[in-house]
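Why should sequence recovery work at all? Because a backbone constrains its sequence more than one might expect. Tight turns favour small or flexible residues, buried strands favour hydrophobic ones, and helices have their own preferences. The token representation captures these environments compactly. In the example below, the structure is given first.
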């Protein structure tokens, strides 16, 4: 097992320079909820050019690659959002891009990746998940961008933490969706160097919460995985190296139900006119439980790539 350490403030500041002019500095807006236990603020990463924070990490990692590194093209494994980040930068750099994608990936994300010119390689979920551990896939030998363990990717994600502290200096807690851990650990790495008193929480859905189970057990733990419309986070397990880093950096994992996420998404549309994907609405659902505290809580709206039919069903009061 490779040991991963927190990225340094210098790493995050360097990443900020690399992605300047590529990733957008997204706004942080308050969410008017009269009955909320916390004062909720939304960090709108759904407003990135690809509709997701993943452009930050992808650009940070690929900007470090040499022309020789990129000559044979680039590839990643992704359910849709990192795929878009890598494909967006590959198109900008004029290189080929391939994406190993689970056959359960939403249609909206598939089409977005294809619009960016990438080649999709659909595989069963287990085969897709295995790529995160092996960093290999038969037939692909270009520059691999790991969606969450790459330190350059985490440094790019960490720029979100800097922006939150600059826009809301008295923030008490930050709630971040937990997929592979690269977003939450990148943000926590940046925040702890400048505001160590600010707590950074992961959040998961109860149908797929391996971090909460692993933290409770004190070791990486596999769980039964139930797919849901919250497709951007969760899985049957997490990588051991990411567990160690997450346990060191995060204040815990707040687990919510899929129905709670749907309700949070509906409120975001009604109160802030913000359309988020399931993962992007999960921090709001988590903050509404009060488990992130009663102060000022920044919720990272990680993305907004969701099928229109699912949004319609949620707005009608249902759960996709």
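From this structural description, the recovered sequence reads:
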């Amino acid at each position: 097992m490779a040991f991963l350490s927190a990225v340094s403030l210098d790493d995050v500041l360097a990443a900020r320079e690399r992605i300047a002019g590529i990733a957008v500095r997204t706004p942080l807006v308050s969410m008017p909820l009269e009955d909320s236990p916390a004062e909720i603020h939304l960090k709108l990463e759904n407003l990135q050019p690809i509709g997701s924070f993943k452009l930050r990490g992808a650009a940070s990692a690929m900007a470090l690659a040499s022309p020789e590194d990129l000559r044979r093209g680039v590839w990643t494994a992704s359910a849709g959002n990192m795929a878009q980040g890598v494909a967006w930068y590959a198109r900008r750099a004029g290189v080929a891009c391939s994406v190993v994608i689970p056959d359960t990936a939403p249609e909206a994300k598939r089409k977005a990746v294809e619009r960016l010119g990438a080649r999709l390689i659909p595989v069963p979920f287990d085969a897709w998940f295995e790529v995160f551990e092996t960093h290999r896939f038969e037939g692909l030998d270009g520059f691999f961008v790991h969606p969450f363990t790459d330190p350059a990717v985490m440094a790019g994600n960490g720029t979100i933490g800097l922006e939150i502290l600059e826009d809301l200096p008295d923030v008490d807690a930050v709630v971040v969706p937990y997929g592979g851990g690269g977003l939450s650990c990148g943000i926590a790495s940046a925040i702890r160097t400048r505001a160590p008193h600010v707590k950074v929480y992961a959040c998961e859905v109860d149908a797929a919460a391996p971090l909460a189970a692993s933290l409770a057990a004190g070791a990486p733990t596999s769980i039964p995985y139930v797919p849901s419309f919250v497709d951007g986070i969760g899985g049957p397990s997490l990588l051991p190296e990411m567990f160690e880093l997450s346990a060191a950096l995060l204040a815990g994992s707040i687990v919510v139900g899929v129905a709670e996420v749907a309700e949070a998404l509906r409120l975001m549309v009604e109160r802030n006119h913000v359309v988020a994907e399931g993962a992007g609405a999960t921090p709001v659902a988590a903050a509404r439980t009060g488990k992130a505290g009663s102060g000022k809580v920044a919720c990272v709206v990680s993305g907004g790539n969701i099928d229109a039919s699912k949004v319609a069903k949620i707005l009608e009061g249902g759960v996709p």
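A few observations help interpret the result. Residues 57 and 153 are 4 Å apart (CA to CA).
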